[in-house]
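Form 7-S
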Amino acid sequence: MLNLSIKIPDLPLRASVGIFLLLIITAITSVIATPKYRTLTHPPVLESVVPLQLGEWKNKPNPYAQVSVNTYAQNLSDFIYDQVMMRTYEDNSGNQVMVALAYAGEQRQEIKIHQPEVCYPAQGYEMLRIHNHVFHIPGSQMPINGKQLIFRKDNRMEAVSYWIRLGNSYPMSGFQMRLKILKEGLKGNLDDGILVRVSTIINQESDAPKAYLLHEKFLTELVHNVQLSAPQLIVASKEK
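Output:
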């Protein structure tokens, strides 16, 4: 009767360890090389999911051009973001808020959402104030960490509020963004991200607190309305 067993050759310990390490490295590389996209399966069209009226806030034409959402010229934003939407809304009292949403389906080390404290100065603005802020927006599953700032360029002064959603988190700095992208990359994940920025033109710095209150009021309406048609687009959800 034939002996069909296969004899595995004996290998030196050093060679065995080398082969084992090679297999581990190959496995890790294969995971990173074929990332799992944790983006929205069918990203909604921003112009469609954000209504022209949000509660009492109505879309209005604005003679002032908004500051670009990146450090480059306005027409280069498509190279960084998949979608960009900029509008101005006005409430029943005549208060105006400019909103900018910039969505990117893949966040990598070389392609990241730009923070306003980088974009504004790159376009000639002086940053007068900046502080961290927690937005308490009804409907959000967790506190929204963001920032409030004041910028000035010539005779124009803006109060700005914003947050960045990166996957299921709200990074507060470029370092935190890089760390989040690195951690997810090691797991084989690629997160999506969105910049949610609102701003108001003010006459003087003392007008900023009033502007920030308007921002919170507007953002509450924005989140409520967008959540109805595009959950998890502009606010994060807790991981299960």
